[in-house]
TrEMBL record:
InterPro entries: FAD/NAD-bd_sf, FAD/NAD-binding_dom. It comes from Staphylothermus hellenicus (strain DSM 12710 / JCM 10830 / BK20S6-10-b1 / P8). One of its GO terms (molecular function) is oxidoreductase activity. Pfam families: Pyr_redox_2 (PF07992). PANTHER family: GLUTAMATE SYNTHASE [NADPH] SMALL CHAIN, GLUTAMATE SYNTHASE [NADPH] SMALL CHAIN-RELATED. Residues 35-352 form the FAD/NAD(P)-binding domain. This is FAD-dependent pyridine nucleotide-disulfide oxidoreductase.
Length: 368
């Protein structure tokens, strides 16, 4: 997410995760005795569950949310994807193909798990080692449930939240899981120009916020979400503010009053290949706001500390895998955003299916 989004085609499709088959296999060649555990019930995890179910494996999916679907159900705005279409596919996996879903469970290994977003409904914490020991193969698809922070004065306190937090709070309220609707006031400033920012802006519009603004340190041409998405928001009334970077959140009696922005100019390309934003001294100004939504990226959230059970992480907290999506533990694979970093739903599904094929090849050799 929250680069999580959908291509236009996906918006029209019923999300059927068992696209390899219409019915459970009549013969399983002994696979029904083999247990595969999937950690994370987002798009990658569900696609993998469908793949394994069509082959006749015994599949259990663990997730910390009260419902499967990941950010498709708990973050992405309904104008992009209706969670009902996701859950129809989930119920088919459960009721027709026998996939077991264990919700409200957080899996982690080695020590006390770090705090992540979207953990309101966790009822149990299970050690990853227990899952690995009781499974023939494990696939990790836990995604990116931790948002980056601005790290500027005034950030801590009410009135400042991440895009994931904002979208999640709306979704759980809509589902009746909490009784209070999130309130962001009349004026919202969103920092960032990726798909997280776009989704937060869309949701703010849907919730009737009077003035929605997006502030970005580069220009529309460099926006990660793309010029098309930004122009679409502008046509709906979102104010686009470019070449600015936040330096301080201004508070009055503890409440957000404004955000102080500094104007930028573009310099030579940085390591990303985009022009580097350079601050213009003395150009700071204050923009009035009731709520600041930070949408500057998400961090992978693997269910393990670096090195535990032989599973290694890189400096960006992504799980390190080989070309077949296998980790340093011979029984554990990983795929989706927890491997690649924030990406699209289609990419999460693609990598999960590659990993699933690798697992199937490994398990087939064991059966033989």
């Amino acid at each position: 997410m929250l680069k999580e989004t959908l291509c236009k085609t996906w918006r029209l499709l019923f999300l059927r995760f068992t696209w390899m088959c219409k019915n459970p296999p009549s013969t399983t060649a002994g696979r029904s005795r083999i247990k595969i555990s999937i950690i994370g019930a987002g798009p990658g995890g569900l696609a993998a569950a469908g793949y394994f179910a069509c082959l006749g494996y015994s599949v259990t999916v663990y997730d910390k949310q009260p419902l499967p679907g990941g950010m498709m159900v708990f973050a992405i705005p309904k104008v992009r994807i209706r969670d009902e279409t996701v859950l129809e596919g989930v119920y088919e996996l459960r009721d027709k193909f026998g996939v077991v879903f264990k919700n409200n469970i957080k899996i982690f290994g080695d020590h006390e798990p770090p705090k992540e977003e979207g953990e309101h409904f966790v009822k149990e914490i299970v050690n990853l080692k227990d899952i690995v020991d009781e499974s023939d193969a494990v696939l990790i698809t836990t995604g990116t449930w931790q948002s980056r922070k601005l790290r500027i004065p005034g950030e801590e306190g009410s009135g400042v939240m991440s895009a994931v937090e904002y979208l999640y709070d709306i979704r759980v309220w809509e589902k009746g899981l909490v009784d209070h609707k999130p309130s962001v006031g009349r004026k919202v400033v969103i920092i960032g120009a990726g798909l997280s920012a776009v989704d937060a802006a869309l949701e703010a519009l849907e919730q009737g916020v009077e003035e929605v603004m997006i502030a970005y340190r580069r220009t529309k041409k460099q926006a990660p979400a793309g010029v098309y998405e930004i122009n679409k928001l502008a046509r709906r009334g979102v104010k686009w503010i470019e070449l600015v970077s936040p330096v301080e959140i201004i508070r009055e009696n503890g409440r957000v009053k404004a955000i102080r922005l500094q104007k930028m100019r573009l310099g030579e390309p940085d390591e990303s290949g985009r022009p580097r934003p350079i601050p213009i001294p003395g150009s700071e100004y204050d923009l009035e706001a009731d709520t600041i939504i930070e949408a500057i990226g998400e961090i992978p959230t693997p269910p393990v500390a670096n090195g535990y059970l032989g599973i290694k992480l890189d400096r960006r907290n992504k799980i390190i895998v080989d070309e077949k999506f296998r980790t340093g533990n011979p029984k554990v694979w990983a795929a989706g955003d927890v491997v690649t970093g924030p990406s699209f739903i289609g990419n999460a599904i693609k990598t999960a299916l590659y990993a699933s094929k690798s697992i199937h090849t490994y398990l087939s050799s064991k059966i033989l």
